Amino acid sequence: MEWGIKENRIAVNALFKYNKTPLEIFNLLKLLKIMKKFVYRTIKRFKEFNTIDDKPRSGHPHEIRTNSNKSEEVTSSVCKKWSQILFTDEKFFTIEEKFNRQNDRVYAHNSQEAAEKFKE
Asked: What are the pLDDT digits (tens) for 51-99?
């Protein structure tokens, strides 16, 4: 049998039932490379839920994917996604855009020449 998290929880719980403090449990189980946080969480889990099992998980359960249902799911999801997308290469331009002085550049050697070119 392989030693895992469940066995660690059982060991922590057994020592807790024999009125050992979390720090004593941690020192006794150092060889198992159990962290102090693990001991406190396991004791808290046992006090709250009266079990050492994992907490129930939230969210959608995973499905086992086989070759037969995988291909059907992929094709149906791709068709649904592509039908909702609108492709266009046109850009929307406004009739009167906001004036930007940086777009009006005048190259001149002095300010008089610039003033003459700006009048044009």
From this structure: 888 777 777 766 666 666 555 555 555 556 666 666 666 666 566 667 7
Spell out a b/e string for 13-41, using b for 16 or more CB atoms within 10 Å of the CB, else e.
bebbeeebebeebbeebeeeebeeebbee
Give the contacts of 22 (CB within 8 A, at least 6 positions apart): 16, 36, 39, 40, 43
Closest C-alpha to 54, from 12, 13, 14, 6:
6
Provide the residue count of the chain: 120
Percentage with pLDDT > 70 across the chain: 62
Residue 1 vs residues 8, 15, 60: alpha-carbon distances, Å: 13, 21, 32
CA dist 3 and 14 (Å) reads 16
Reduced to 3 states (helix: H, G, I; strand: E, B; else coil), residue 63 is: coil
